[in-house]
Amino acid sequence: MTVPIDLEQDAPQARASPAESGRTHERLMIGGGTLLATLLLWETLARSGLVDPLFISSPTRVAQAGWGLLQDGDFWNDLSISGTEFLFGYGLAVAIAIPLGLAIGLSRRLQYMLSPFIDTLNAVPRVTLLPLIIIWAGIGIWSKVVVVFLGAVIPILINTQSGVKACEARFIRVARSFSASRLRLFVSIILPGTVPFVFTGLKYGAGRALLGVVVGELYASTAGIGHMIAAAGNTFQTDVVFFGVLIFMVAGLITVALLDRLEQRFERWRPDVH
Question: Are 222 and 188 in contact (CB under 8 A)?
């Protein structure tokens, strides 16, 4: 006999309490104030002449350089190329790492088979493989896609596998005592319990993916934001370098924010166990 589990009935409410809302506003005020004070201090140091602007630039000069780049068609081409490399490499990593991580977590034999390769890729810095990747894939977009994929796939896979292993054994024993099928066990207990681990891996993997874009374009590329940063650094255009770094920073923040929103939607699916 199987016992139906209504996940929606026990799902936690998504409404924020007044205390949580107050903490959110407080965090925004303190964080925003700290950021504003840092920018003002940076601008003051640059204008005072105590530090050479060639080394640190200034917020206003970075903004001016950014505005000039926004009017340049080559910049949008670089942005498109870097975005394509990130989306292709990261998307491929997600599509492979999550199902494979779930499968490895559920199968001891598969874990024994693939663990040596996973541990090796995790231990070896992916940057050291870049010369080989360029030999195999050239200096075009696909070599950077491979670097992005290798940077993101291992964190996502390992976190997903760990999530399966961390599922509460007592819940699984109870479900089995009611003769729950393997599919029901996976959908009702294992998969919801793995959600926080999966999103942790996705966030960490996104950072590794952006790093792959930068490293790949710095090492060997003819276009992209990383290539733009390298060219600006070689000609001492500090303003452009800071603006390029700002682009990657904003891309990372937006990616993590989108993953946070998606995780909140999945959290409603997970049963609230007290």
Answer: no
